[in-house]
From TrEMBL:
Sorted UniProt keywords: LIM domain, Metal-binding, Repeat, Zinc
Alphabetical list of PROSITE patterns matching this protein: LIM_DOMAIN_1, LIM_DOMAIN_2
GO molecular function: zinc ion binding
Organism ancestry: Eukaryota, Metazoa, Ecdysozoa, Arthropoda, Hexapoda
Protein name from the UniProt record: Protein espinas
PANTHER family named among the record's database cross-references: LIM DOMAIN-CONTAINING PROTEIN (PTHR24211), PROTEIN ESPINAS-LIKE PROTEIN (PTHR24211:SF37)
Signal among keywords: no
Domain of life of the source: Eukaryota
Repeat is among the record's keywords: yes
InterPro entries with a match to the protein in the record: PET_domain, Pk/Esn/Tes, Znf_LIM
Domain LIM zinc-binding: 194-259
Annotated source species: Papilio machaon (Old World swallowtail butterfly)
Pfam families in the record: LIM, PET
Length: 268
């Protein structure tokens, strides 16, 4: 399991958010097995499947706590089958294997080293107790869940959009995919220095840059500047949406254009 998903003893890290009445919520009549609070996510998934308690699983995987409204980041609970950006967007690339998802495709080994070196200032020091390279892996898992929520990507993952608004949501998704959603291109810059659109400082010859064609063919960023304009998080696997000449993650692009329900985390 990912390092952010469980504590050292394999139990769910649900107690990290102080004053959260998660354990009280587990005492509800909907949950007949009180030992659920001490189990791991795999057992929770099996329990919910066998006893048809999908709403309990969704409570954990999407919002975690109905009572206090805190999100799963504060509980360090993540789904173990998040895959990659390309998986979530329904894209396939024969050049990539699972272990290559952490680094941008198309870079040589030396260029990949330069890419990660350029992100040193943004490296997570600790995520869910993980440090070093494990912290990057943990950050990626968290970022996939938050920046590309499945309910923003497809109607099939939405449970609370009524029939009247289903077509409107599908049109919104289709338009976003057509004009805004893209994956940045990392490459090595050669030639005269050019200006980074993020920090306005020069991108020098020989350094790695990230291009965002949805914003402009000549637009380039330092890897550390390729962030969401709303949350300032690095864009996971360089997936971005362009709006008014700025970069956004899928979540915050959606929220710029549509309201999001705090309870179910779906956009209206």
């Amino acid at each position: 399991m990912p390092p952010t998903e469980t504590a050292a003893d394999g139990m769910l890290c649900l107690s990290r958010h102080e004053n959260c009445p998660w354990h009280e919520a587990l005492k509800s009549a909907e949950i007949t097995w009180t030992g659920l609070q001490y189990t791991c996510l795999k057992i929770l998934h099996l329990y919910c499947k066998v006893f048809e308690k999908e709403e309990v699983l969704e409570l954990v995987l999407r919002k975690t706590c109905k009572s206090c409204g805190c999100d799963r980041l504060q509980h360090s609970v993540y789904h173990e089958e998040l895959g990659s950006v390309r998986d979530r967007l329904g894209l396939r690339d024969a050049r990539l294997n699972h272990h290559a998802y952490d680094s941008p495709p198309g870079l040589t080994a030396k260029q990949t080293e330069l890419y990660w070196a350029s992100l040193a200032e943004r490296a997570p020091t600790s995520v869910g107790g993980a440090t070093g390279s494990a912290a990057w892996r943990a950050w990626r898992i968290r970022a996939l869940a938050t920046q590309l929520p499945k309910q923003d990507l497809s109607l099939s993952h939405c449970r609370h959009i009524d029939e009247q608004h289903r077509k409107q949501f599908e049109d919104f998704v289709a338009a976003r995919n057509e004009i805004a959603l893209d994956i940045g291109l990392a490459c090595q810059h050669h030639g005269a220095s050019i200006e980074c659109m993020g920090c306005n400082k020069p991108i020098r010859s020989g350094s790695i840059m990230v291009q965002a064609p949805r914003i402009g063919e000549e637009v380039a960023f330092h890897p550390a500047c390729f962030t969401c304009s709303e949350c300032d998080e690095l864009l996971v696997e360089l997936a971005y949406c362009a709006l008014d000449g700025r970069l956004y993650c899928v979540r915050h692009y959606s929220e710029r254009l549509k309201p999001r329900c705090h309870a179910c985390d779906e956009v209206g």
